[in-house]
Each structure stands twice: as C-alpha cells, then as structure tokens.
Amino acid sequence: MGLFDADNGRLTFGGDEDGEGGFSLSGKRNRTVKQVSVPVFYALVGALCLWLFAYISGLYPYLGTARDDTRSAPGVSTSLGKFGIGVSTMLLFEGQTAFFEYESTSAESEITLDVKPVTTLGYSDAMQRVRGEASGTAEFPITKTGLYRFRHEPALGRRYGQTKYSVSWGAR
Q1: Where does the pLDDT of residue 19 fall: very low under 50, low under 70, confident under 90, or very high at 90 and above?
Q2: Across the chain, what does the average pLDDT equal?
C-alpha cells in the first residue's frame, strides 16, 4: 500500500515511511488552482475582447454556429447530433442586416429561420422556411434598433423523416 506525504504532495509505493527506496507517482506540487485559473481567465477574456473587436469592426460578422441531425417516425424522435455555440440574442441597430448562412443536406429537411425582437411572441413576419437540400443566405433587414433573437429549428408539423442542417448567424 502506498504512503501519501501531504507536505510535498508525493504518493510513494514500497520503501519505508520516509519514502526512501520506493516508487513515487508524483513530485512536489508546484501550482495551485489560483495559479492555473488566473491565466486561463485572462486568456478567455482576451479571446472575448478579440472576437468583440472583430465583430464590431465588421471583420468577423458571425455571432454563432449550429448543426442538427434529427430523425423522426410516428411516436419517436431521435437526435443523432446537435451542436451549437454562440449568442442567440444581440443588440442590432437600424440599417444592419441580420443573416443566416445555411446548408440543409437532407431531402426531407424543413427548417425555420427567424430574426425577431425579443418582445415578439411566435414568429416574425419575415420568418423563412427552407425545404429539402439547399444552401444559401437568408437575410433580415433591421428596421428598428433593439434586442433581437436569432431562431433556427426544425419546422413544426413537418412530415416524418430526417432533418439535417448547419447554420451560422450574424449581422452586417
């Protein structure tokens, strides 16, 4: 059985109680949680500031990306792979154009794309549906400054089958 020396963080197997003549799994601990988490925090804040600068300057207009692969049959719906990263609500200004770049790779796909003020229930009048295999850009002109929500989802009430798509969204 091994001996653990809490003073220097060493786990030793074999040997005597002083840790002599045995096999050590770890040496002296050099870093605390604080010493590791502070640089990670600064790296994340730096990355966020870099992205924010690129977005505001127009160099990188994307706010997020997602993909979905869902199959459904009577009484059953299975998600085979869903991934998304980014922000879905953003302050947009009058004159900007919000957009979705999409690619649907299944003939049975039907997806709904919408950009609407956060205070609006349901879908906006500008909502667009994409059916079948297709790719392109759906644009939504912003007529009033405010908080807007980007929505993408398999269309409600669609027939059974497979919905497979990927989208990226942002504003220019």
Answers
A1: very low
A2: 77
Phi, psi of 131 (to 5 degrees): -120, 140
Query: What's the rounded Cα separation, in Å, for the pair 10 and 22?
Result: 11
Per-residue tokens: 84: 């998304």
What domains can be seen in the chain, in order of their start residue?
62-171 (2.60.40)
- Using left for φ > 0, alpha for ψ between -120 and 50, and beta otherwise, residue 15 falls in left
> How far is residue 32's CA from residue 107's CA, in Å, rounded to a whole number?
54
Other Cβ atoms closer than 10 A to 60: 14
Best CA proximity match to 152, nearest among 72, 95, 86: 86
Give the Cα separation of 10 and 102 in Å (integer): 54
pTM of the model: 0.63
Place of tokens 């199959």: 71
